[in-house]
Each structure stands twice: as C-alpha cells, then as structure tokens.
Specification:
The complex is a heterodimer. Chain A is of the alpha+beta class. Chain A is built from five helices and nine strands, in the order ααβαααββββββββ. A nine-stranded mixed β-barrel of chain B has the order 1-3-4-5-6-7-8-9-10. Chain B has a two-stranded antiparallel sheet with strand order 11-12. Classes of the chains: A alpha+beta, B alpha+beta.
C-alpha cells in the first residue's frame, strides 16, 4: 500500500521555512532517498522500485476491475503491423515485439483467404459473439461486474455475457469439454494481476477484422493488470497447435469510461435486419 | 468439432418450438400430464420444492407481501437475492390464460380443465384478467393470433423466434434466469437477453433511444426492488397470442422478495396511452432454484460443478447463452 508519511516529510522539507542547507541535510539523512517527483513516495524507494499504485480493491483486498472499459488501440482492425487501408487506420500492431502471428504454412494460406473475404466473412458482420480476446479490444465499451467468486463481463456489442470464475474452480473435464464462443474462463491472482486461463473454444470466431483466426484448440492466458486506477494493461497469450507454430502474445491498454452518466447501451445488432417488422404500427 | 454446448440444443429446441408451436404444446402437455397434484402455496415463506414438482404448472399461488427485509444483505446494504429463479405458471404461450394453450391451435387440443382449474391470468388488474386494449390494438392482437400458426407476413413471426430478447415482461416467464448483484446494480441474465438495473441514481437514457430490454432505474424499499422502466422499443411480444405494447410504454415494476429467499412476486404497472384504455397490472410468481434442484434445461439451465465441490455442495455454473450464433438465424424457416 502507498505510504503517506514520506510524502508529508518531503513536502515539509521543501517548505519555505527551511533553508537550502537544511534541505540538503534532510535529504542526506534519508540516504539514497530519490526525489519523489510524482508527489508521493513509498518505503522501497531506496531500491528505486516504483511506488505501489492506488487501485480500487474488493473487500478481500483483490483488485476491483468493476467499471466500463474500452481500448483506444487499432487492434480490432488488424492485430499485425499494417499501413493505412480503406477499411483500417494504420497501426504498428499490438503483437509483442511488433511482430506478426506465427502461423503454420496452411494456416497462413487460410488467413490470406480470410483477409480477401473480410468484407463479407467476418462473423462480426452478423453481430456474432466476438470471442476472447477480441471482445476486449473491440471498439465498443464493455462492463466488468465483480464479486469475490467471479467477474461478469457484459460486452455492449451483441450484449454477450462472459463469466470468469475466481473461486478456485477448474475447467470442465476434457470428457465434458464443450465448444464455447467465449471459452471457459478460470482466473486467479498473481499479486495484483488477474490471470485467466481460457479454453474450450469453438472455431467460429475471428481475432480481428483482417481475418486473423484460431481453431477450437485455442488456449488463451490473459493477464489483467492495473497501471493506475483508470487504466488496465491487458495481455493475452494465444496458443493453438493447429494454427500457430508457437505461442504469441498481444497487449492493449484499456481505459475507464469516466464521462458523466456513461453507461452501456443495449446493442443487439443482429436484430437490425428484422426489427422493421415490429412493433405494430398504429393505424 | 467437439460436441457443442448443451445450450445450443436447448436453443434449437426453443427455436423449433417457437416456429412450430404445435410441438411446444405437445411438450407442455407432456409435462402437464406427468404433473402431480400441485398444492397451493399457503405461505410466502414456504421452502423451495424439490425437482419433479412441476412447479411451472402451479395453479394457485399467494403473492409475497411487501414489507421489511429480514434476510441476508450484501455489503452495500442490498437484500441478497442473488441466484437462479424461474416463474411457476407455464411459459409465454398465452399471456392471460397461461395454462390455456393458444387459441386456434390447429391440432385442436383443448386446454386442461376449465378456466377455473388453471392458473389465473397474469393480468391481475383489471379484475377480468384482460388487457384493456384500445379497439385498434385489440384488432392487431387478434390479427397476430389469427396468423400465428400460418405466418404469411414477417410481422406475424414472433421476434423471440428470431433470437430477439424476450423483453419486458416476457423474460420473466420464458426460461429460468439468474440474478447477480453488485454495488449500484442488479443484473438479470436471462435465457434471451440481459438487463442491467441501475441503482446508482443516474437519469434515464434520452427518450429517443429505444431498446428491446428498455432502460431500468431501481431502488430498494424493504423487501421490494422498485424499478422504473422506460425507453422500451415495444417490439417484443408478451406472448404467442400477440399481446403487445408500443414504444411509448412505461412500466413500473416491483420485485417483492420473501424473506426466506424462496420466492418473489413480480408486479408491474403497465401504462401506454397509445395502446391501452387504462393502466393495468401484470403479476408473475417466481421461485428460487438451488443446487438441491436438478438442472432441467428449462427453469434451471445450469451445470452443477461437482468436480470442485467443497463440503459436498455443488457449485452452480451458468452456461453461455448463445442464440443467433448457434442456430444460423433463429427464425430462418421464414424467408422474410
């Protein structure tokens, strides 16, 4: 936790009643105490560790991710580095090391086909559930509701609902394994990082609008970590022996919506094709 | 592909039932035929019944009275009503005669017994149990009913058959559902759609935003969750008999919970001057499902996780609800 006392001491040391020599002596007395340039310091500054950040917490002390979040990245358009296209803004990509996805040769061919057909074949165009991790970096907000035993994620796009269990439970046995659109999510904490193991996917979702994809052998490990109270660093490592030659990782930043009265607004976009027929028009 | 999630099959069944209502009646008849004599609920504090009581065919029930909450509370002070719930008197086939089947059923299967033998109308006011439609609106409802078994136009297909959310109030007498609670929110996870009830005092959305599940602002009064519902798009039907509102509808809900947590009564005042001649009230009884109940694919669509069970108590896990994705266009049998 943040230690407020050094903060007070340093403020005092810069008070107008103190002479410069006093300031020096105070600093010397603090040994290798680094100057606290962001207004507060912690006990471990001597070892130059960053101050622990003040983040929201549940009653049990675990980080509280409750809130409405959204990315500002261009990940949804194409995870890989890409120049400007008519259907995508440019981006250095969100793959670790600014690399590309390590597709197996046959999978790379399929990805190329997907790319060519992206204007018609992206499941998003039918408003289908985006899957994991795509829902996290889709450019619409999602809301996290959190209890000690689980996190519920409500994605505005399609109103998909995902549960991440944090109650020390395991994935279903392989014999019971199912193919979920959102996978089966079991989370635990490593320090203040929420680590989520996700498997039992189907092969129906894409990873972005450019046709990056996976099979039903996909295994995702997510790491959700506060950078500050209003910013989450989201990392996902994807492994899929049918499609990739090795595991690879992506990372995006999620920002908390803080606009006044901001809320999710229902978006059952798959109903748009037929809602012209309802309700009954008054004659 | 590995086998698909059980909910996919449920959803397929549901879609078939909606598109071919004869099948659903057969299923309901089957359930009704196997039902034991249902005892009236004599107390709102009654214990949850075991699986097999066919409680969806409850013919009489006592409404839970409004009053104090003496049950458990959450850290933020809300009454703790989290868990799995389902209504006790049939599904959405018929709104005003819930166990009466659908008029005009071409198979000609009569409802069970006389009207007095069946559950009361969900319309608890007016006393005649009928929705007080304006003449044009009654004609529209009758027109929908006339073509329900032969949907010759797209507007005669019930939106739920196309995977639209069941809306307010139908979500409460479709499948079972889960209530989760958080500081500032009550969240309903329905078989078809999701509702977030805001307890945080924020204003309603601008009125030109219209939604299948509307916009809900609530607060607790003792054992009662009071919710103001606006921004309804008026597109969902209340029933297969075509009952409806318009996008001007205003619904004032009360969820009145029994202190032992076993039941609650849903009451809603429905006001819509464009469709009805006066405000009217819908009443829907509901009961809780727990790990002691066997998952049954309708009221209690969950998995009981016993692999991680501690102390012998199974952990209830809710399947993902996927409709349009797994059915390739629910309602696709009709090319409109």
């Amino acid at each position: 936790m943040m230690n407020r006392k050094p903060h007070f001491v340093i403020k005092t040391s810069f008070g107008s009643t103190l002479t410069s020599s006093l300031i020096v002596s105070v600093l010397l007395s603090l040994g290798s105490f680094a100057l606290p340039i962001h207004g507060y310091a912690a006990e471990k500054t001597a070892s130059r560790e960053l101050s622990p950040i003040r983040i929201p917490r549940l009653a049990n002390g675990k980080p509280d991710f409750s809130g409405i979040w959204q990315t500002t990245s261009a990940a949804e358009y194409d995870l890989e580095p890409h120049s400007t296209r008519k259907d995508a803004p440019p981006s250095a990509g969100v793959i670790e090391g600014h690399g590309t996805i390590p597709y197996l040769p046959a999978a790379l061919e399929e990805r190329k086909k997907n790319f060519e057909a992206r204007g018609t074949d992206d499941p998003r165009l039918k408003c289908f559930t985006l899957g994991v991790p795509r829902g996290t970096y889709y450019p619409e907000p999602f809301q996290i509701f959190q209890r000690k035993q689980d996190l519920t994620i409500l994605y505005q796009f399609g109103d998909s609902v995902r549960t991440i269990y944090t109650n020390d439970t395991n994935h279903p046995d392989d014999a019971d394994a199912n193919d979920w659109w959102l996978g089966d999510s079991r989370g635990h904490y490593e320090g203040d990082t929420l680590v989520v193991d996700v498997k039992d996917f189907n092969d129906q979702t894409w990873l972005d609008r450019s046709g990056n994809f996976h099979s039903d052998a996909l295994h995702v490990v997510e790491r959700w970590k506060f950078l500050d109270a209003n910013t989450i660093e989201y990392k996902a490592t994807l492994d899929d022996a049918k499609v990739y030659s090795r595991p690879w990782s992506l990372s995006v930043i999620l920002h908390r919506h803080r606009e006044k009265d901001f809320q999710l607004i229902e978006n059952y976009c798959y109903t748009l094709d037929y809602d012209q027929y309802y309700p009954f028009p008054k004659p | 592909m590995k086998k698909m999630k059980s909910l996919k099959q449920k959803c397929l069944v549901a879609s078939t039932l909606v598109l071919f209502p004869l099948a659903v009646n057969a299923a309901e008849d089957g359930q009704a035929a196997s039902a034991a004599v249902v005892k009236p609920i004599v107390s709102s504090e009654s214990k949850p019944k075991a699986e097999g009581d066919n409680i969806r065919w409850e013919k009489k029930y006592v409404n839970v009275p409004e009053g104090q909450w003496t049950g458990p509370r959450l850290a933020d002070g809300q009454p703790d009503v989290q868990g799995h719930w389902s209504n006790t008197v049939s599904n959405h086939a018929n709104f005003t005669d819930p166990q009466g089947g659908i008029p005009g059923d071409p198979q000609g299967r009569p409802p069970k017994g006389t009207r007095a033998d069946r559950a009361p109308s969900r319309v608890s006011d007016p006393a005649d149990g009928e929705i007080p439609y304006q003449p044009w609106a009654r004609a529209k409802q009758q027109e929908f009913l006339q073509y329900f078994f032969n949907a010759i136009k797209p507007e005669y297909i019930e939106p739920l058959a196309r995977c639209a959310p069941a809306g307010v109030p139908k979500s409460f007498y479709w499948h079972g559902y889960e209530i989760r609670q958080y500081p500032g929110y009550v969240v309903f996870l329905f078989s078809s759609g999701t509702r977030v009830i805001h307890l945080d005092g924020k204003p309603h959305l601008p009125e030109n935003i219209k939604l299948w599940n509307a916009d809900s602002r609530g607060h607790w009064e003792g054992n009662t969750l009071v919710v103001d519902v606006t921004n309804n798009n008026g597109k969902a039907r209340f029933s297969r008999t075509g009952d409806f509102s318009s996008e001007n509808v205003h619904i004032q809900e009360k969820y009145i919970f029994a202190n032992d947590g076993s039941r609650y009564t849903y009451q809603a005042l429905v006001t819509d001057p464009t469709v009805y001649t006066r405000p009217w009230t819908v009443t829907i009884p509901a009961r809780r499902y727990t790990a002691k109940d066997k998952p049954n694919g309708w009221h209690f669509e969950v998995l009981l996780n016993t692999r991680d069970a501690k102390g012998g108590e199974p952990i209830i896990e809710r399947d993902e609800r996927i409709c349009v994705e797994n059915n390739g266009g629910f309602g696709q049998g009709v090319k409109h």
